[in-house]
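User: Please predict the structure of the protein below. I'd like the answer in structure-token form so I can feed it into my own downstream comparison script.

Assistant: Understood. Taking the following sequence of 353 residues as input:
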Amino acid sequence: MSNRFTADSLIDFTAVLCTRAGIEDTIAHDVANILVEGDLLGHDTHGLQLLKPYLDALANKAMRGSGEIEVIASRPAVASWDGQYLPGPHLTLRAIDTATEMARQYGSGSVAIRRSSHIAALAAYLEKPARDGFLVQIVCSDPSVASVAAYGGCEPLFTPNPMAWGIPTSADPVLIDISASITTNGMSARLHSAGQKGDHAWWLDAEGRPSNNPSVIFDDPPGSLQGLGGVEAGHKGFGLALFVEAMSSALAGHGRADKPDIWGASVHVNVTDISAFGADSAFHAQTDYLVNQCLKSTPADPAKPVRVPGQRGLAMKAEQLENGVTLRSDILSALTELAARADVVFPEPVAGS
């Protein structure tokens, strides 16, 4: 079977699988759109690869397919929600919508969410609000999981604690999606399953020694992912991890102190209307200049010109929207198995791909 499929067919297929499994229709389409957007942007460890784990979580009652968001606290420009373990893509999209309306009125809006399920690739949420003239920030952590050590420590304590920003320009936005660890749990699991090593010592074994073998985090006792900066400068990643924990779990009032045992996320979304601070053109004059200066930088390797965050992902998205989304063979196999099990017709591949 070819490995290229139209984005629309994958969205429709994913939504059908989700509704067959018991996810409410509107929520199912939110999940489908965000997972496929992850693959479009090249985040294939956080795209459709997550569909089976999501459906497994639903079957195990670690995720709810329907229900209402509980508002814990609110003021005109801030809110705190209990997501009741509804699908993370749905909750995060609704939080962006809510924070955007706050920003239209007050210049900025923030929503913190506790007890969300996993929210997939943070980059998948950024493009639309940034193109609409909003500066958007998303951070999240999972208080039920520990895989990243505190700087100088040996035991796993944090999750990778990703953080993302969408920055408007007069052209394509800058899309930043990074984490407080050097690599992710998803990439670690993929390399471990394939019996492959990392390019560098991205992990620590249980005694705190650097390793290029992802299998150390699956040992007993487990090793951990190194914080951003590694052995030499990991205090930077450590600081960022603490910031994310405070912005997500602490502001939402539910985190590691509660010792949750359900796979999920604490999330914080902030949206800023750049026009509240002055003319859009004044903002764009600064961001456009910075982007152009970056792209004009003399590269250390002429074969690898400088690019800004999101540039490669948006180029991949444009190419895949035209020619079809490429699915890795392991992801394709998992999806076809899900289709057969649910008696859902898998999409036809793009002709000639």
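That's the full token string. The mean pLDDT is 96.
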